[in-house]
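Let us work through a complete example step by step.
Step 1: write down the sequence.
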Amino acid sequence: MPYGDAMTTRARSQERRADIVRATLEVIAERGYRGASLAAVAERVGLTQQGLLHYFPTKEALLVAVLKERDQWDAVPDSQWRLDLLGSLVDYNAMRPGIVQTFSALLGESVTEGHPARDFFRGRYGQVRANMAEVLRREYGDRLPGGLTPERAAPLLVAVMDGLQYQWLLDPESVDMPGAFRDFLSLLGGTAGPDMKGAGEGAGARTAGERAGQPTAD
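Step 2: predict the structure and record it as tokens.
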């Protein structure tokens, strides 16, 4: 095949894959994770299910491509991430339950050995932890008010973001995901939310500054 024809074929294939990913996002938004069947996506893009499998051999492979696309939407240059932007991201996630459901379902499945999404999530979490450590360092310096280093606090920050998603998906009426995340940011900063002010006053109560002065082990 001439070089020019090969380039054209590759470009068309990439464009087709992009069309399929966009269609999958639409189906997820409309029908949720379980409704995002290969047949539904294939119908949306005018392919047979077998034709769709030419581009994405499994549903998991397609959904990982969708999550990568989602990460591109959410991408912010590392130097521009701030804690308040993380709160805005949680607000945004609360408006797209289908995508959050897809992420959470695949994440839960990926802990099994050999799952096609395992490498994606392992690499993603390594990068996210590093990014969050830098966010915390820009906000607080080398020590958070409670004494933790940014590197030690970063996994906790990530765990709260993703753990709240599971609780919210299971019981959205009872779990205020954006509000709970902002409460956690207050705890990281050594401040109490409006409902917590005054709690614990008396014997053993300490100010944020006093807590920050306590020696901690690394």
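Step 3: interpret the result. Confidence is low (pLDDT under 50) at residues 196-218.
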